[in-house]
Structure formats: C-alpha cells, structure tokens
Amino acid sequence: MENEMARQMDNMRRSADLMNQLQHVLRREIVDAETAPSSAARRAPSCKVEKDGQHFSATLEVEDFTPVELTVKQVGRKVLLSGKKEKKEENQEGSYSYRYQEFRRELELPEDVNPEELSCSLNNGRLHIEAPRMALPSVPERVVPIKSDVSGRLKNGEEEKEEKKE
C-alpha cells in the first residue's frame, strides 16, 4: 500500500511539473503577443496605385497567399480584392497550431478606365491589376448665351443687341 501511495505521489509531482511548464509557456506566449505588433498590422498587404497617362495599375504585396486563396471581383467601377488562408499544423506530440489570415481591399477605377479591360496577374508574391486608359470623347466647343432679366422679361445677349440697334 505504501508503494502504491508513493507511486501516486510521483505521478502527482510529474503532473504538477508539467502544469508549471505549460503555465510558463502560456505566460511567455501572452507576453510575446502583447508586445508584438498586431498580426493584422503585420500581415495587411501593402497596396501601390499608379495612374500614368496610358494605364491604371495597382500592385498588392500578397506573398503569403496562393492564387487559389485570392479573389478579385469587379463590380461597376470598383475592384474588390480579398484573400483568405487557413493553416493547421500538428507536431509529433499531438498538439497543433491554427493560423487564419484574411484581408480585403477596395479600389475605385478612374472614370477614364474601361472596367471591361481589367486584367490581373500574380508574380513573385505581387498581385498586379491593370487597365488601359480610354481617350475621353472630345466635347465640341460652343458659346453658351447669357440670359438676363431686364425690365421684367428674360432676354439673352442677342435680343438685347437687336433692341439697342432699333
């Protein structure tokens, strides 16, 4: 009976040691998480928009995402960009970690860009979106008459000139 009690005491000590080690690891992870920049700030893809004379283009740094995890939608004059990624890793001891990343961006296309000609490519961790600029139709020049209210009735510039001649 004494041997049984001694063995149970040893098991309890080992369990207490394991609990202390786990508590230490958890405290260290909490401190690391509080002092590190937020994962959203670290992982948010940077976006560079360029509007030269010939093209509109936008480039996003998305090195953490594969083409399957990215979505580019065009709705009217808006381009909606999103990425979603889930990863579960398990080690030999049976414990696992789970990581989830998601981002969303919205870009407005300029008026002189044809949304139907929008194209997109992914190279070296950069998502590149591009569309050619259209030549805006020229507006014919015209003189707009100025109307004035003289003596209670509306007259434009031509009518006033004719009245002065009389």
TrEMBL record:
Matches recorded under InterPro entries: A-crystallin/Hsp20_dom, Alpha-crystallin/sHSP_animal, HSP20-like_chaperone
UniProt keyword Electron transport present: no
SUPFAM superfamilies with a match to the protein in the record: HSP20-like chaperones
Pfam family, one: HSP20
Biased composition (Basic and acidic residues): 150-166
Species the sequence originates in: Polypterus senegalus
Protein family according to the UniProt entry: Belongs to the small heat shock protein (HSP20) family.
Protein name: HSPBB protein
